[in-house]
Design a protein that fits this description.
Length: about 210
């Protein structure tokens, strides 16, 4: 089975991994499903949970962290970072808000990023593998691919389905601009505002962006 690593391996990142891709998780043997959902981001989670709540037999697969881009690398981390920036900015407007600081605020960036990781670990609890399982959907962790009509394979398991939802997310397309070389720009997975992350096992790199650092 794939493993997921987040750096640094502090308590918050370990919690995020335990929730989104438990290291001791053992996939079921496979089976027959009314619905198989590929991808455990917001779209996949809603599809799987809604169908399970309606009484359908559902499997949701995720190769990396449940919660997908939003909770792990997008919405939550960026908003946590922006919140810190706003706090510092507001501190710089102290007289306007009726208080006085003896010195200008100084940013401790490692502490900012620790808070980002802490916020993420709290936020990802709602999208955790266990939370999905509690709705009745069965979670499979690993890269998933279609192998035959109405069959996908994940971690060597075959899942047969009546319907499938492909909710594997998207990436920005690198525009064909002369002189724009990989490594000379920052994409959403490589930006300094995102907690660095790496995946061991199958590469998560897609067509248009450099691998996350
Ligand atoms: C920096 C940033 C900030 C953002 N802020 C906001 C915000 O404030 N508000 C907002 O509404 N949106 C925000 N977004 C957008 C939001 O993150 C996306 O719209 C949302 O995550 C899309 O959900 P999704 O389920 O379609 O895809 P994703 O969240 O990308 O999920 C797709 C999942 O599929 C998995 N997957 C892919 N291929 C396979 C495979 N073959 N087998 C198994 N699993 C696979 C991936 O690992 C991933 O977990 C932000 C995005 C970024 C990058």
């Amino acid at each position: 089975m794939t493993t997921v690593e987040l750096f640094p391996a502090d308590i918050y990142n370990q919690k995020t991994i335990r929730q989104g891709h438990p290291p001791d998780w053992i996939n079921r043997a496979g089976g027959e499903y009314d619905l198989v959902v590929l991808g455990g981001g917001p779209a996949g989670l809603v599809s799987a949970m809604t169908a399970a709540a309606e009484g359908h037999r559902v499997a949701m697969t995720e190769q990396r962290l449940t919660g997908g881009t939003c909770v792990n690398f997008g919405c939550t981390p960026s908003k946590a970072l922006i919140r810190c920036a706003r706090a510092v900015h507001d501190a710089g407007r102290s007289t306007e808000f009726g208080f006085r600081l003896d010195s200008a605020p100084r940013t401790n960036f490692p502490a900012v990023m620790e808070r980002v990781r802490r916020m993420r670990s709290m936020s990802s609890a709602g999208d955790a593998v266990q939370a999905v399982e509690q709705t009745g959907a069965e979670v499979y962790l690993g890269h998933t691919r279609f192998t035959a009509q109405n069959v996908v394979e994940v971690d060597g398991r075959q899942l047969r389905f009546r319907k499938a939802v492909i909710a594997t997310g998207s990436d920005p397309l690198l525009p064909q601009i002369d002189g724009l070389q990989p490594g000379e720009y920052l994409g959403v997975r490589a930006g300094p505002g995102l907690p660095p992350s790496r995946q061991r096992g199958r590469s998560h790199q897609r067509r248009s962006e450099p691998a996350p650092q």
